From TrEMBL:
UniProt organism field: Thanatephorus cucumeris (strain AG1-IB / isolate 7/3/14) (Lettuce bottom rot fungus)
Protein name: Putative zinc-type alcohol dehydrogenase-like protein AdhB
Gene3D superfamilies cross-referenced by the UniProt entry: Medium-chain alcohol dehydrogenases, catalytic domain (3.90.180.10), NAD(P)-binding Rossmann-like Domain (3.40.50.720)
Taxonomic placement: Eukaryota, Fungi, Dikarya, Basidiomycota, Agaricomycotina
Alphabetic keyword roster: Metal-binding, Zinc
Occurrences of domain Alcohol dehydrogenase-like N-terminal (ranges): 16-106
């Protein structure tokens, strides 16, 4: 059970408790949480009262095949928070089913040990709540884009087909064709600069920077001037980050 410090959406009048993503403090633990727990997710033996956690908008067991391979949204026992089957985050407390496979514990700031638990986290709740759904949604879109097989030539600097893994040893035909610098230039479009679009834009810039892609352009599209300005301001802060935004060419529709 958690006591809330942040939720993502406002409530409305309906017959069940709404609210998807959440940030909270653990106030009690069920019988499944034991120090000697073996087999279930590690959080069952590690989580303790007072820990700060983030929850995605679905519960997941962490033990079925989809969970084990990372597809937790396809969990055999998944339930949606804020639905008729599972009360959501628009409340003072919430019970988290399959909590050991659902929650993510926020690491404590070791320099503040001895203070109240809520004061041990430097990241604001407004930022942490993005981790529950909005940021991962944008990040996943960016990840899917750069992992598309049609872009492999740009990262490998080899002509198509480029197939990673052992199969590549049996694929021939493109080795003698030189991929020029301009050939490997990538162009992306992010359509819509709301919260998810901004997270996709930031994720794309970071991922391209971290992969060492020197030549790319991103066209960010939104008719709302305030959103374009917000995106511009966010991009301006990324220059000193690991990925960096220095090599991005960003345009905005007017």
């Amino acid at each position: 059970m958690l006591g809330f410090s942040g939720i993502a959406i406002k409530g409305f009048d309906c017959r069940y408790i709404t609210g998807h993503e959440l940030v909270g403090i653990v106030v009690s633990l069920g019988e499944s949480f034991q120090k000697a727990a073996a087999g279930p997710p590690d959080l069952y033996s590690a989580l303790k009262i007072g820990d700060k956690v983030v929850s995605p908008f679905t519960s997941s067991c962490g033990e079925c095949r989809p969970c084990r391979i990372g597809f937790t949204a396809r969990c055999d026992d998944s339930l949606l928070f804020g639905s008729p089957r599972l009360p959501g985050a628009q409340a003072q407390y919430i019970r988290i089913p399959r909590a050991g496979g659902t929650l993510f514990r926020i690491p404590q700031d070791e320099s503040t040990l001895g203070t109240e638990p809520a004061a041990r986290i430097r990241t604001s709740d407004a930022s942490l709540i993005l981790l529950a759904d909005i940021l991962p949604t944008g990040y996943f879109a960016a990840l899917q884009a750069i992992q598309h097989s049609n872009l492999a030539y740009a990262f490998a600097h080899k002509s198509f087909p480029v197939i990673p893994g052992f199969v590549s040893a049996f694929i021939t035909g493109g080795e003698s064709v030189k991929v020029e610098v301009d050939d490997a230039k990538l162009a992306f479009a992010v359509v819509g600069l709301g919260p998810v679009g901004l997270c996709a834009l930031v994720s794309l810039v970071e991922l391209l920077g971290l992969t060492g892609t020197p030549n790319f352009a991103i066209v960010a599209v939104d008719p709302n001037e305030a959103r374009r300005a917000k995106a511009e301001a966010i991009l301006a802060t990324l220059g000193s980050s690991p990925g960096g935004a220095d090599s991005a060419v960003t345009q905005y529709s007017r």
